[in-house]
């Protein structure tokens, strides 16, 4: 059984409902064991789109990294995600952030996620549920990475989600 951390985001439709539905669907590929609070975040890259709701979850799964990726892509497609501009609007986005302490670099999949250490909208919720997890390449904890973030895009707790920072 592998412990995996997934980044989740939505900025089309009922964002909160989309994230909850994705969590429900993730129950078919493993067991969701931790869920962060929700954070509202300004878009990165392509700015002319609605703000995102982001969160992170911990998943226990028997799937290999590539099997998990295929399952996540199937969930995204099932929830209405269609090809569009890179970093563009989407009803759901599911990313493998960490898969145990695995380091993987293939044309289809890079683990840890290549932009994990520079993205506040991922590090803030990830540090909430896994502050002491070690980034297997950078050899720093998620909390250390979060604390060393440069000022950038805005990430704010989503009202009613329980986020404390």
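-> sequence recovered:
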């Amino acid at each position: 059984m592998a412990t995996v951390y997934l980044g989740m985001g939505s900025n089309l439709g009922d964002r909160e409902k989309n994230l909850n539905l994705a969590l429900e669907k993730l129950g078919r590929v493993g067991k969701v064991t931790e869920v962060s609070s929700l954070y509202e975040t300004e878009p990165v890259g392509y700015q002319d789109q609605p703000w995102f709701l982001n969160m992170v979850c911990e998943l226990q799964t028997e799937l290999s990294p590539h099997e998990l990726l295929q399952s996540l892509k199937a969930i995204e497609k099932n929830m209405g995600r269609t090809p569009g501009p890179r970093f563009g609007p989407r009803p759901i986005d599911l990313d493998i952030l960490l898969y145990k302490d695995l380091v993987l670099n293939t044309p289809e999949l890079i683990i840890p996620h290549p932009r994990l250490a520079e993205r506040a909208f991922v590090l803030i919720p990830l540090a909430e549920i896994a502050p002491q997890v070690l980034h297997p390449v950078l050899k720093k904890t998620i909390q250390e990475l979060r604390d060393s973030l440069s000022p950038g895009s805005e990430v704010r707790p989503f009202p009613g989600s329980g986020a404390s920072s």
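The chain has one domain: 2-157.
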